[in-house]
Amino acid sequence: MPLNYDSLATVYARNRNVHPGVLVALMATGKIDSSSHILEVGCGTGNYSIALHEATACRGAGIDPSAEMLAVARSRTNALYFRQAKAESLPFTQPGFDLIFSVDVVHHVTDRPAFFRKAARLLRPGGRLCTVTDSAEDIRRRVPLSSHFPETVAVEMGRYPRIATLSDEMAAAGFGTVWTETVELAYPLSDIQGYRERAYSSLHLIPANAFQRGMVRMEQELASGPIAALSLYTLVWAEFTLR
Ligand SMILES: C[S@@+](CC[C@H](N)C(=O)[O-])C[C@H]1O[C@@H](n2cnc3c(N)ncnc32)[C@H](O)[C@@H]1O
Question: What is the number of domains present in the chain?
């Protein structure tokens, strides 16, 4: 059954934060400054586009199919344009974006080649597309999702496209150069409310008893101190160059 992000919007807004490594990489490799024009695809509650705007004063837009996610994003800022749409049918016509990016979204996109082709048309020459996702290794290594809820590993392997597949699809969409960057963050986790509230979509996709087992294990470990958490992402970058 597809996830209903409308019903997840409040939980998501309360519990999901920007990964600092992803933000730094988007700014640095995306070469974002106050003159940049960005588009976030699957912006959800606007976490990343708002953080990029606040850090650089760039202009930007975010699209997402979920009206409830967008309502939260709009309540947080007037500085960005948010519109209801899917990656498969980006509602823009003119090239001019310096960076088009998505975070934790590409596994929901049913026609990735159409998304990547349209993104290539919307970038200015030299503009970059970034797909922030999880490699198979990221999925296996993440703590506490994979360590405490091991049933999520098979679920995620089944729904996340492989990095090599994404790279090939981005190249086939007309991007001259495609490369990857990885970020990771080790941190002490003591607030597990986001896990209780299942703010991570794979926790909706495992059996109830597997979810309960993982929660009990987290509670037990927390009794003797924070959990040593590890958050990882792989960024698949592509640059649009005129041939
Ligand atoms: C895990 S959330 C990530 C939200 C945001 N990028 C973030 O990191 O905070 C996934 C988002 O993808 C959106 N989404 C689902 N299918 C999509 C599609 N076909 N095109 C664009 N966004 C989609 C959902 O509505 C949801 O907001």
Answer: 1
CB atoms within 10 A of CB 75: 11
Which pLDDT value is given to residue 16?
79
CA 101 to chain CA mean position, Å? 9
Q: What is the rounded distance in angstroms from the CA atom of residue 100 to the CA atom of residue 222?
A: 39
In which domain, by residue range, is 126 found? 5-135+161-184+232-239
- pLDDT tens digits along 55-96: 999 999 999 999 999 999 999 999 999 999 999 999 999 999
Cross-strand pairs, 102: 131
CATH at 98: 3.40.50.150
pLDDT digits (tens, 9 = 90+) for 177-232: 999 999 999 999 999 999 999 999 999 999 999 999 999 999 999 999 999 999 99
Q: Does residue 223 form part of some domain? A: no
Query: Ligand 1, closest atom to CA 41?
Result: 21
**Domain presence at residue 203:** no
Ligand 1 lining (C-beta closer than 6 Å): 5, 16, 41-44, 47-48, 64-66, 69, 86-88, 103-105, 108-109, 201
